[in-house]
Amino acid sequence: MKRSIEALFWLALIAAALIWSFSWLQLDLIALFGSDSLQQMTGYARSFFPPDTSAEWVQKIFRGVLETLAISAIGTLLAALAGAALSLLASGRLGVWTKALSRLLLNALRSVPELVWAALMVLAAGLGPFAGTLALALHTAGVLGRLFAEALENAPSGPALALRQAGAGPLAAFCYGTLPGVLAQWLSYTLYRWENNIRMAAVLGFVGAGGLGQMLYVTLSLFQQARASSVILAMVALVVLVDALSARLRMKWAN
Asked: What are phi and psi of 126, to 5 degrees?
């Protein structure tokens, strides 16, 4: 009985919070689903069909797909290398102060969204894929560095300790004792972040970071909905293919 009353209390509290949020934000759902709004949304959605499948435009989309793949792949690779280096410090293997400073750096890197990093990199490196690559690398390095460090902290210390007692140096003990136990997990984390970076690389183009996102921004700005529809379909196909490939690779390496 007591639990039922407590559950009802929390449900009532959540409902009151939702009602207050709608009121405070002045969200008018009735206007959203009104006849005029639905007609306008339907008309705008129809303008995206049929997609532009002309040979010239398909070739440009293909180049955009390759550019998006390159941005995400290089950005993820750079992030994995930087994250692996910082994870050694963040896991406390080189002292308490280096652990605290490296964790602070990792928190700062991943706290700044990719779009903000992209805007900063566009100012520093100019428009194009280089800015997008740097933006993904900086944010993802913070994420992977923290995940890699947690994997190192949870790794068993027995194999590395045995190698040290047998006369191996710190580097050899890490490479042959600790790294094999966390490498599969590191690769899984890296592939998962690559999936996310594929999606984000397509979005970063809205701030001039190249790839399919920049093509989508330009076509929507020029009210070329048929071409924008083709770009959106290419984005969906790219994400589906990369997700399937990444999932298969993760299962293969996990086993």
From this structure: 90, 170
Is residue 48 one of the residues assigned to a domain?
A: no
Taking the C-alpha atoms of 174, 134, 62 and 242 in order, what is their torsion angle to the nearest 10 degrees? 40
**Based on the domain organization, do 66 and 163 belong to the same domain?**
yes
Domain shared by 239 and 182, yes or no: yes
State the residue range of the domain holding 79.
55-254
For the domain that residue 156 is a member of, what is the CATH number?
Answer: 1.10.3720.10
Q: What average pLDDT does range 107-135 have in this prediction?
A: 84
Rounded Cα distance, 13 and 141, in Å? 39
* Sign, Cα dihedral of 119, 82, 191, 151: negative
The tens digit of pLDDT for each residue in 183-231 reads 778 888 888 888 888 888 777 777 766 778 888 888 888 888 888 889 8
| Same structural domain, 124 and 233 | yes
- The verdict on 105 and 220 lying in the same domain is yes
Per-residue pLDDT, averaged over 29-35, amounts to 68
pLDDT band at 175 (very low <50, low <70, confident <90, very high): low
Distance CA 125, CA 5 (A): 59
- Tokens, residue 96: 């308490």
Neighbours of 167 (CB within 10 A): 8
Taking only the tens place, the pLDDT of each residue in 219-229 is 888 888 888 88
Q: Look at residue 79 in the predicted model and tell me its pLDDT.
A: 92
Residues 178 and 227 in one domain: yes
- Domain-located, residue 47: no
Better-predicted residue by pLDDT, 119 or 159:
119
Residues 11 and 68 in one domain: no
C-alpha dist (Å) from residue 205 to 3, 16, 23: 51, 40, 35
User: Is 32 in a helix, a strand, or coil?
Assistant: helix
